[in-house]
Amino acid sequence: MAGEWGRAVILLLFFQFPLLQAAKILTLCFIGGSHYLLMDEISRILHNNGHEVRMFLQFGDGMLPGHLLLQSPYPVSTYSLGEKHKQEFKEFFINGQKEFLRGRYDLSDFLEFMELLSYQCNITLHQSDILHFLKDEKYDLAFIEGFNPCSFLVAEKLGVPFIAFFPGIFMNAGRVGAHGPLSYVPLFQAQLTDHMDFFGRLKNTVMYLGSNIVDGMIERPFQKVIDEHFSAGSRPSIADLPLKAELWIYNVDFTIDFPRPLSPNIQCIGGLLAGPAKPVSADLEDFIAGSGDSGFIVVSLGSMIPSLPILEFVKEMNEGLSKVRQKVIWRYERSRWPKEVDVAPNVRLVDWLSQNDLLGHPKVRLLVTHGGMNSLMEAVYHGVPVVGIPLFGDQYENLIRIKAKNMGTFIAPEEMEAENFANALREVIENSRYKTTAMKLSVTLRSRPFPPDQQLLGWVEHILQSGGGGHLRPYSYQQPWYQRHLLDVILFISTTAAVIVYLIVKGCTVLLSVLSPSRKPKQN
Q: Max CA-CA distance within the chain?
């Protein structure tokens, strides 16, 4: 009897919660490099689990310099920028690299980059044939790359509900309602840890007060795009669109980032590109075998930087690497290596490397990296210490977290000198505390209840089954700013307190005047 009752309950639950059918999902990617690698991996995960996936991709020659794109198992709708703009963008990026390597990256450079993205967005929204085709397909959900504001405008144009994926730490925390307590949650570019002294908290607060102004400057270039492509009665606000996301997913894990409070519509799923290592090529294996017990170092400054445009910087790095015992595998486009510099005898240059597989090799000792989140998550996964050379974006902030957690250190690019660099490499390799910390963080990351691909899939299917993420979004998204920050309450309490104090003082004055003996006027 009990068995029949159990089967009845199972059948009831089965019909009450039917299995999710395959959904039509559109992924949007308008930036290359690591942004593309992540969106490709997300598209593959969804495709491999039975969903009908298509990517809308801005394709460019420099998406992954030195690397041939793998053929995707899902269909892709591509378009390309004009040759003139592609050349201008390439020159901008090369000039930008020179500024990064001299330590001269600031807000004006980032604003110029956003101007270029807004120009590209205008081209994207002019792809009327593709946009009409995508709109007619009636997608159930879009999965967009949340760094580029254009992704939100395309999703709005198509009228598709969307999940936003951010490729790094909480750079846009203010725009998604994710500001944490300023006493222990550092703002982006504050270059602080969660252990702040008084002046650190003061700096964090002052930066917070100015953050809305900076956000407005970043978003301003896209207003022209909105004015051109949306009719007067239905123009969205670029500041409000991030709040429409059914869910926000950040490519970060608290093994690296500092803990902070988050509402349920914000999930951290870091390490999508990290995983068990595959064997490296026979050629590299032979090179590694020659390192003996010393092992080898992996050097890569990111998927978008295959070479370095400043000769002196290359010389200092090359000489610094020549001073250590380890073999070195350096991702550097060999055809662009300066002819006046002899490659160090312990260095092997490669146009492209499978970083995750090399970091999983038993003889790896260190990763030299720009500090991109994907590289750091792979280093944590495999328990490999880090020496960073931060260049731009979130890389300084990422490496401050790595240093605070004792997994490595970093050198500012303008301080790159051979001896300084070699000392940093030797310190991190030979001081066992870095390796010990890296292995502890690796155990922490790998022991998560669910791997990142399962978390991603589970949340996407939850949003699809529940008909959106409205139940996850806090009511603060609908409140005006003065209510959200309790300014009306503070004003009421302050005014009430002032009135009470005034009445008390006034009453005391009257009482004293009544109780005091009357004074006769003075006579001459």
A: 117
